[in-house]
Amino acid sequence: MSPPSANQATSGIAADFVVDRVRRHESHQGAYFAFQMDRPESVRIFDPAERGQHVECTCEEYQSNQLICIHIYWLFDGLNAVLRPRTALGTQVISTGDVLTQISALYEVIGSQLSSLSTLLSATRDETSSDTDDATDAIGSPVFSDNRAEQIRDMLSVFDTSTFPEDYDPRHASIQAGNGRQDAYVPNNLAATIYQIAVRDEKVFESLRDVITHDICANIHFSKLRTRAREAFAGLDNYIENGPLDDPETGDQDVPRCARMLRYVVDQIFHTRDTRSSSGPLSAPLKRRVAETLVEILQEVCNRNEDVYYRIAWERKTADGEPDRNRNLYAYLIEDPPRPTSSMPNWMKETFIIDRLRQTPADEWRHLIERLTSIVDQMRERMEDEDTPPMAYTKLERMIQEYTTEAFEPSSSSVQRRPTLGSQRQSQRRRFG
């Protein structure tokens, strides 16, 4: 390690940073985990399966020279202390290449401990730091609730059509050193100023919470996720119509990339549903709208059971041995998904939407029973007689049968008609294009 790098490593190890939150993100550059510090900087660890050993920081130092900065060294030492207790950096000599290799190797482990990682990192630092005044944090800022800060970001994101709470501008998502409201002003940024005031003043926070309720925030958050799914479909349509984009930074929304984004959105829908439910019950209408979003995505995928490149007007370059599924969104997600590997996150391995929907109380999707039955029929329509039914078809059919068996007992006085499906309604099938 060169002297400048050694100095950076030493400074990083000795630094007293704090990780405010850890989130997983999808971008045109690939998936990554973002470690947001309690200050503007954020360290991003990219999926090595997509970007190789790529770790970056948003700080000015890294952005100007693309060299490992003190924040990356600090996080590297912290992750080793938490996830590899016997290999914490300490005073050992290590090359910059080894730093990237070892951080990237932790990618899957980070994903498995995502919910507790920021707490573990903070606990590790607390053990090695000297005692401090309980009234201040490491940079002399007023103590405040992390939960309150997250709620404020959630409330502010309501007023932006595309920004999620975790995307809130990191330059204004932390308390700066100061004594009170007079330090809360952020020039040219009303939202950031409101954030600074509400974090400091509990009465202001409670007033905002009374107006911008949990249900309002959840409703808008789910709407943004639905929009993101629709954008994934639109991106695929645009790629089919116009071919590769001129901008390499944006990337081409081909079938595999669209499929991955849809899986990610579904995972985020359920992650958001679970975390928000733990803070307070979601309303019944909101839960039903969540189920409607999932069925809408499933229906749209079923509508795309075809070779999407069959009639394109541009020349598409293909790799030797390209799987047929790479040309058919339905096949990629439902009929013949890629075989799961140990490096895949869990949300990439499960049966698309159906596994999650089966874990959802029937009260949330019972009003969609006719649409779900039609989707089962649509799947069957596209199967040849000798085909083995896709796992998604089998699971969805079973889910509907279990529900209808329970809901339409022979002794029931209900006049509702019990849905029929699959081979029971061969003569009643509706045709889908």
**Helical fraction:** 40-55%
Number of strands: 4
How confident overall, as mean pLDDT? 78
Question: What structural class results from the helix and strand content?
Answer: mainly alpha
Biggest sheet overview: 4 strands, antiparallel
Any idea what the shape is?
globular
**Widest β-sheet, arrangement of strands:** 1-2-3-4
Estimate what percentage of residues fall within beta strands.
5-15%
Rg, rounded, reads 25 Å
Q: What ranges have pLDDT less than 50 throughout 5 or more consecutive residues?
A: 86-93, 126-146, 173-179, 411-418, 422-433
- SSE series: HEEEHEHHHHHHHHHHHHHHH
What is the first-to-last residue Cα distance?
62 Å
Number of helices: 17
